[in-house]
Specification:
Helices cover 9% and strands 27% of the residues. It has 2 domains: 27 residues, no CATH class; 36 residues, no CATH class. It is mainly β. A hairpin with a 5-residue loop joins β1 and β2. The longest helix has 6 residues.
Length: 66
């Protein structure tokens, strides 16, 4: 019910209008391509350059052994 087009002129579903993203198809990419930069100096995280957004992101790593 949430996937029905509300206005054919917009060619978007209510979900796309509300969230601002389009639904991924079966063969669409589900992740962004990134380049590993290194590890963070202040926390247990690694830094990755996101090519699509052109930003540096920090991702937290889980450490099982301390």
């Amino acid at each position: 019910m949430n996937r029905v087009l509300i206005r054919p002129i917009l060619k978007k579903t209510p979900y796309e209008l509300f969230n601002g993203k389009e639904n991924l198809g079966k063969f669409d990419e589900k992740a962004d391509l990134g380049i590993f930069i290194g590890y963070s100096l202040t926390s247990h995280a690694y830094r990755v350059y996101n090519k699509r957004l052109m930003t540096v992101e920090e991702s937290v790593t889980l450490s099982l052994m301390r």
